[in-house]
Amino acid sequence: MTDHSQPAATPALTLIAADMHEVDRVIAARLTSSVPLVGQISQYIIAAGGKRLRPALLLLICGALGYRGAHRFGLAAVVELIHTATLLHDDVVDASTLRRGRATANETFGNPASVLVGDFLHTRSFQMMVETGSMRVMEILSEATNVIAEGEVQQLMNMHDASLDEEGYLRVIRSKTAKLFEASARLGAVLAGSPPELEDACASYGQALGTAFQIIDDVLDYDGDASEMGKNLGDDLREGKSTLPLIAAMQRGTAAQAAIIREAIEQGSTEQLPAIIAIVRETGALEVTRAAATAEARRAIAALQALPGNDYTAGLLHLASQLLDRRA
Known about the structure:
The chain is mainly α. The protein has helices at 12-15, 17-30, 36-46, 53-64, 71-93, 105-109, 111-130, 135-158, 166-176, 178-191, 196-223, 226-229, 235-238, 244-252, 255-267, 273-282, 285-303, 311-323, and strands spanning 98-99, 102-103.
């Protein structure tokens, strides 16, 4: 057990900047296809950028546990391709038109092409994971992709359901979002040949971090700036998603306030969006939601006690702490 209460000041992502460049090189090399549209759409969404948190998490865990082998680049690329495939499919399901400040792939190329290229990214990622020659790696990633798909279906079933509670909400995001964070962290431990208890600690860190990330993302839908976030304010409401800020607002608000939110979720309407934003803020729902994210971040930080004390572990701690200050 190591005391990580005084982390190094070095930002987490600076530690792995060179590694991330190599991951980007691997991704670019593996997006080649004899079908031009496949490469065109793949490059379009990869080039949109993003935080690349999942591959970064894998690389940081590898660094913390002393693994410097080349497989870390391939597997970091794999988790980013899986994530990108889910984004392509998500945007089709949600009929989204904007992501990361520009038109979504489905808005630009159409739904059929986006779905099929998402399938290509999934299958390419499985080709790449086979190259590690590790059944354990394939087990982790195949289970993760299956759980993510289940989470997507469960979220679809929850659409326009204003009776969803916090437990049901967390169940979906732990499947849909946090599972790939968990798998990324676990893969780093597996590559390093870690014992089961250390592998589980890394997975717990990843799951908690991913859960906190999604909770904060849902806060920003009602507390952010649409131009800064690169997404439309109120998207979740338009899709009939009952997220934690809305759940908390219905629980804490008056019967009339709860009725306004309930109708909006059930109808998928943003007509009352200004009033709903006001209700979410007035009832303290954002504070409740941020507190839930804080609890998850603390769970992530607690899991790091099992890791050796070094700059990479300090970087992981910084990543969890920084999440609580996220505004976009």
